[in-house]
Amino acid sequence: MSIVERALKRLQAEASASRPRPVFGRVVEGASQAAAGRVISLDQDALRLAGLLPPTHQERQIASQYRHIKRPLIAAAMGRGQEPLPSGRLIMAASALPGEGKTFTAINLAFSMAMEKDLHVVLVDADVAKPQISRMFGVGSERGLLDAVTDAGIELEPLILPTDVPNLSLLPAGTQSDRATELLASERMVEAMNWLLHRDRSRIFLFDSPPLLLSTEAAAIAEVAGQIVVVVRAGYTEQHALLEALSRLPEGRSASLVLNQSTLRGEDYYYYGYGAPAEA
Question: Tens-digit pLDDT profile for the chain (280 aa)?
Fold first, then answer.
C-alpha cells in the first residue's frame, strides 16, 4: 500500500468517526475606534482546552520554542541582518501528510509573530479543500482567498479580518471551488500576493496549506511562497514520506523543518534548516 493510500485510509477512518468541529471564534463589531468594523473574537481558553494553544503549565516553554522558530523566518522576511528573501514575507506552513501538527504550528507561529512590536501577521487559511482554521475561527462562510482569485473585481484587503489578538488578522479560505488548484496557480494569485506585499511592508502572511502529498493545491501555494516550513511529527512521519514531500518543493526555495511532539530535550531538536534560499 502506497503512502497516499495509507493516508487516505486513515482519513476515511477519521471522517467516519468525526463529529462537527467546535468553533472558537465569532465575528463581532469592533467596540472601539482602534478596532472599528468587523473583528474576529477568539476564545483562547477554549483553544487551549482543544489543544490548539499550549496549556497554561507549558505556555512559557512552548512560547520560548516558537520564539526560536520564528526568529530566522522573520530575519529572512524582513531583511534583518541579511538580505530579505524574494517574497520572504509569504511563509507557507506545510506537512507531508495530515495529522502531523501543521495547523497547530501555523496558529502558534502566528500568535508568536504577532507579539513583535513592529509586525502584523495575517494568518491565511489556504487549506481550501478542508478549511479548518476558517471554521474554527467562526468565518467558514465568509468570502476569502479563493473568492479574490476567482473574481478580479473582488478586493482582497476587505476580506482580511482583524482579530482581538493585537497584530493578528485572518484571511479566510473563501468559497470552495473544483478549480482551486488552477485558481491558486493563476496569474491572478501572483498579482494578488504582490499587491498585498507592497501595500504594507510590515505584514507577514502565514499560509496554512494542505498536505504536500495529498493535494495539488499545496504545490501551487509553494510556487508563490518565499519561505516554507515543513512540520514533521516525531515518531509518526515516515522518512520516505518526508523525502517525497520535500522533493515536491520548488527547486532552490528556502525551506525549514519543525520537529513536532518530540520527547527529546534541547533547542537543537525541534528546528533545523533544509535547502538553500531562493536566488534573487
Answer: 566 556 555 555 455 444 566 899 999 986 554 455 899 999 999 999 999 999 888 899 999 999 999 999 999 999 998 999 999 999 999 999 999 999 999 999 999 999 999 999 999 999 999 999 999 999 999 999 999 999 999 999 999 999 999 999 999 999 999 999 999 999 999 999 999 999 999 999 999 999 999 999 999 999 999 999 999 998 889 999 999 999 999 998 999 999 988 765 554 444 333 333 333 2
Asked whether the CA dihedral 82, 85, 90, 95 is positive or negative, the reply is negative
Burial class of residue 19 in the structure, from the number of CB atoms within 10 Å of its CB (0-12 exposed, 13-18 middle, 19+ buried): exposed
- Strand 161-162 to 168-171 pairing: antiparallel
Domains and CATH numbers, the chain: 59-274 (3.40.50.300)
Kindly give, in sequence order, each residue whose CB lies less than 8 Å from that of residue 34, ignoring residues fewer than 6 positions away.
none
37: alpha, beta or left, given left = phi > 0 and alpha = psi -120 to 50? Answer: left
- Residues 217 and 198: their CA atoms lie apart, in Å, by 24
Alpha helices in 29-151 (DSSP H): 44-49, 59-78, 102-113, 132-136, 145-150
CA atoms within 13 A on the CB side of 201: 5
Cell numbers given for 204: 507577514
